[in-house]
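Consider the tokenized backbone below.
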């Protein structure tokens, strides 16, 4: 079997205020689509599904856990510098990097719910 047409995963993010999160990601260039009553925010082949938390205290990004990685979502891109410039122009909090190298470059942003989203590429 040779399966080639599988796109990047959709990641569910539990958020404190769905509309605020939609506005935040839309401002960064993500496209909003309501699918089955869920807010899908897409940028290229990355889709973040925003899900309203019933209790805002339950929003706990993996990256904030002791022993967790420094990111909750990792996105690969060939347009890293352009994304970095866009995010900086929007006042986004960069919490890691940018690290520019010949073989690999990356940076990480933190959104309004505390999720750390890393972007990296060659």
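A designed sequence for it:
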């Amino acid at each position: 079997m040779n399966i080639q047409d599988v796109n990047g995963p959709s990641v569910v993010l539990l958020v404190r205020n769905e509309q605020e999160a939609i506005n935040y990601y839309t401002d960064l260039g993500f496209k909003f689509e309501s699918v089955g009553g869920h807010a899908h925010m897409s940028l290229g082949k990355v889709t973040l599904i925003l899900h309203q938390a019933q209790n805002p205290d339950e929003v706990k990004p993996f990256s904030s856990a002791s022993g967790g990685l420094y990111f909750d979502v990792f996105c690969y891109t060939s347009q890293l510098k352009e994304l970095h410039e866009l995010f900086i122009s929007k006042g986004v909090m960069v919490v890691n990097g940018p690290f520019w190298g010949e073989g690999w470059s990356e940076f990480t942003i933190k959104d309004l719910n505390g999720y750390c989203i890393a972007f990296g590429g060659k």
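Residues 10-53+61-121 form a domain with the 2,3-Dihydroxybiphenyl 1,2-Dioxygenase; domain 1 fold (CATH 3.10.180.10).
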